[in-house]
Structures are given as C-alpha cells and as structure tokens.
Amino acid sequence: TELTGITPGMVADRDDFAAVGRRFLDWYGPRNKAILAAWGAYYDVPLLRKECERFELPFHRRDGETLADALAPFEGAAEFCLGGHPTAAFTAAELIVLSPGVPPLPALDAARQAGVPIIGEVELGARFVEAPIIGITGTNGKSTTTTLCGEMFAASGRQVFVGGNLGEPLCEAINRGAPGLSADGVCVLELSSFQLETVERLRCHVAMLLNLSEDHLDRYPDYEAYIEAKARIFERQTEADWAIVNADPEQRRCRMVGSRSDAPLVTFRSARSRGTGAWFDEGDLCVRLPRGQV
Known about the structure:
Blueprint: H1 8-12, H2 17-28, E1 35-38, H3 45-51, E2 55-59, H4 68-71, E3 78-82, H5 87-91, E4 95-98, H6 106-113, E5 118-120, H7 121-126, E6 133-137, H8 142-155, E7 160-164, H9 170-175, E8 186-190, H10 193-196, E9 206-209, H11 223-231, E10 242-246, H12 252-258, E11 265-268, E12 277-281, E13 284-289, E14 292-293
Parallel strand pairs: 1-2, 1-4, 2-3, 4-5, 6-8, 6-9, 7-8, 9-10, 10-11
Antiparallel strand pairs: 12-13, 13-14
C-alpha cells in the first residue's frame, strides 16, 4: 500500500480491478527493474512489453538460432536468458510471471525465499479485466461447461470472452482489445489447477467446481495438494458472488471445498433435491436459488 497506493478495499471492488492492475504494473515499470517472465509460450510478452520498461525472457533451449523467429519481435525490448534458468535472474526480478506449464524449479524456490512475487498469466490478465469473471474448474468437463456458458451469454446478447485454459490466452485477448472484457461484457474462463496455483487477486463473480478425482499426481505430492489448488477458485469471493459445486454423493469433497467461500453456495446434482440448487426431475431441469426460486 505504501509504495503503490493500492489498498485492500480497491482490489475487493470489481469496478476498480482493472485500474488496480494498471497501477500495479505502473509501479513496477518506471523503476526500471527487471520483470521476469518465465514460460514456454510467449503470449503474455506483448502485454508486459506495453506496460513495463524492462523484462527478461528465460528459455530452456540453448540454441538461439532455432529460437530466432520467436525472439525477433522482442529484440531490444528484453534480455534473453538461453540455456537454463539462472537463479540470479530470478532472485533479482521484481515480478515473475509464469505460464501454467512451467514445472517447479529450484530458481523459483529461490525467488520465493527472496520475496519475489510470482503470479501466473491468468492472474496478470485478470488485473486488466473490467467484466465480471465466471471461473470454471474441475477434473473433467471444464471445456464443455466453459464453452456452453459462453454460448449462453452470447445468445442473451451480451459481449462475451471465452478462454483461459482453452482457446485464446487471456493476456493475448487483452492485448488485442477482445470484446467481452469491458464492464458491460462477461469473461468466462476455464481455470486449471496449474493456473489457480499462481492467482493472488483473481476474484470470480461466479466460481464453479464441477467435480474432483485424482489427477496430475506427477505434479502434486498428493491428492490433497491437488484439491487445495482447485479450491483457490473460491478465494476472495464475497456475499455478492456465487459459488457453484457438485453435490452428488461421490463428490462430497466439492461441497466441502465450496463451503469455504463467502459467497452463497449453489449445488447441482443428478437426483432430486429438497434444498437449493439444480437437479433433474423426470427430464426437467429444476433450479432453486438461495435468494428466490426459479
């Protein structure tokens, strides 16, 4: 707060969210310190280049000739680190932006210990989104549900952006001024556990957890760590938001995780329900919301 002028109240107010994102990057950029972006793809580089004076691009590939086409657009605007991930470059950075595919690295551990902020591409992009965010996660069915929600909003006449873990990356969409990201639109994001690991300020107006089953245990130490990554979708929600979870008996962990949210909890299930939520009754879709019945 002292350095940036950003207060907790500002980031809780969606109307100020994009302004806070710009102020956040304005503070980093003019100080002429390194902003380090570490990933395999480079779709968030144009946004960083636009907002910041200096940043570094570490690539694991050692062959600069092979990477020439990828690096050419950023010649003179970035410092390249080829052939590895030097710890000194990471610990000297003021901000590290990761793509979700970057695995745990010793250099990242060193940066965390040095107090360097580490965020993901989705977190970076979300700081420029003025529209309410519909976040969808789960082990299975994310892409189908995200696409369906996008089509429903589009059919209602709203400008909508659909992306995140499918389709166009959020930062790329922001850089080109994609429709659906302004205050009168809707931003529907598929969010993977990898992406949710590195969110800090992302607030979903509607957060959905479709289901949970063991997955990505090559990345996480155990199933509980995977669930904790998914649970981050509900962080920073308020009573003005909505949390939606699967309430089928075999998915009881979804409800336990969703109950952490400060938002009203809405469930869905295949069998009839006497409480609030959504269910099928002889082929009809029934919905009963906490704030009234539909």
